[in-house]
Amino acid sequence: MPKINLSHFEAAFLFSLFTSVVMGITSKKTHEERLRYGAQCFAYFIVALFGIGWVMKLGHG
Predict the structure, then answer these.
(1) Is residue 5 part of a domain?
(2) Which of 2, 3, 20, 45 is the 20 to 30 Å CA partner of 30?
(3) Cα 46–chain centre separation
(4) Residue 26 host element (H or E)
């Protein structure tokens, strides 16, 4: 079985994607609400990923 080498960003991106899909499916009742909520959660995850990344970069110099 081939070994998968992911960077921290790639792993966080995949976590964001899968978590958003699950949250969208389990949280809302209609397909439109699920899609919108999943996309919104994914966008929040990515914004937080970049925001926290910049804070860490500024903190480490």
Answers:
(1) no
(2) 45
(3) 5
(4) helix 8-27
Place of tokens 């080498």: 5
CA 29, distance to chain mean position in Å, is 22
Other residues' Cβ atoms within 10 Å of the Cβ of residue 17: 15
Residue in the block written with tokens 């958003």: 20
pTM over 0.90: no
Cα dihedral sign for 9, 26, 41, 57? negative
Tell me the per-residue pLDDT of 35-45, one tens digit each, with 9 for 90 and over: 999 999 999 99
Domain count, the chain: 1
> Per-residue pLDDT tens for 13-40?
999 999 999 999 999 999 999 999 999 9
17 within 8 A of 42, measured Cβ to Cβ: yes
Domain carrying residue 48:
10-60
